Amino acid sequence: MYFKSDPTPKNTEESVVLNVPLGVITHVEKIGRSRQKGDNVIYGLDVHCKDMRTLRFAFAHNQESHGRRGMYDRLQIVAFPCSYGKNVYAFHFRGDYPDDGWEVYDPEAELKRMGVGNDGVPWRICHLNKNYELCDTYTSTFSVPLNCSDEMVQGVAQFRSKGRIPVIQF
After folding, report:
1. At residue 41, does pLDDT exceed 70?
2. Average of pLDDT values for 137-142?
3. Rounded Cα–Cα distance for residues 62 and 69 (Å)
4. pLDDT of the residue at 164
5. Who has the most CB within 10 Å: 38, 74, 142, 154?
6. Sign of the torsion angle spanned by Cα atoms 157, 160, 164, 167
7. How far apart are CA 128 and CA 15, in angstroms?
8. Helix (H, G, I), strand (E, B) or coil at 78
9. What average pLDDT does the structure give for the chain?
10. What is the pLDDT of residues 69-82, one digit of tens each?
11. Among candidates 1, 64, 59, 65, which has minimal Cα distance to 30?
């Protein structure tokens, strides 16, 4: 939401600019209501944001102009598109990519490229975390010192916070 005030002749200061990403808006509410015809009440909107800001917009009310209603309806639609059945670009963009993104990275090939597991390098590739049961925050394939057996790796993981053992992972 981008708002820029117009400087008035009474107020010679620069205009006020508000720039609020739509994803920061948590809710919008209407404020002000007159009980009797002719009451001089300011109508407006409060825009509440996730970053603790509350923006208040005031509108002069008359029978011909319903500026608050139009702004309220538009803000509801653009700030909460899924609630109104609108398409969100991020969810509907379908680019054509030559490679399957899930198959681009091969951790075993990457470790071998770095020399891990080759002759003379004191590390080996370990597949103990294939189902993410050893350590759910590590990759499925990582490298451990060459002289560590799988049993030793599992034993060490039991005594480390969340099973996080010293490894080479990429």
Report:
1. no
2. 85
3. 12
4. 85
5. 142
6. negative
7. 62
8. helix
9. 80
10. 888 998 998 898 88
11. 59
The kind and range of the H/E element at 17 are strand 17-19
The full set of domain ranges for the chain reads 2-91, 107-163
pLDDT of residue 146: 82
Which amino acid does the sequence have at 167? V
Which one-letter DSSP state was computed for residue 164? -
Q: Is 112 exposed, middle or buried (0-12, 13-18, 19+ CB in 10 A)?
A: middle
How many angstroms separate the most distant Cα atoms in the chain?
91
- Pairing status of strand 142-145 against strand 17-19: unpaired
- The model's pLDDT over 5-16, given as tens digits with 9 standing for 90+, comes to 777 666 667 778
pLDDT at 35 over 60: no
Give the HSE-up count for residue 31: Cα atoms under 13 Å, Cβ half-sphere.
Answer: 14
Q: How confident is the model at residue 28 (pLDDT cuts 50, 70, 90)?
A: very high
Contact 110, 170 (CB under 8 A): yes
Q: How far apart are CA 24 and CA 49, in angstroms?
A: 5
3-state secondary structure of 27: strand
| DSSP β-bridge partners for residue 48 | 27, 54
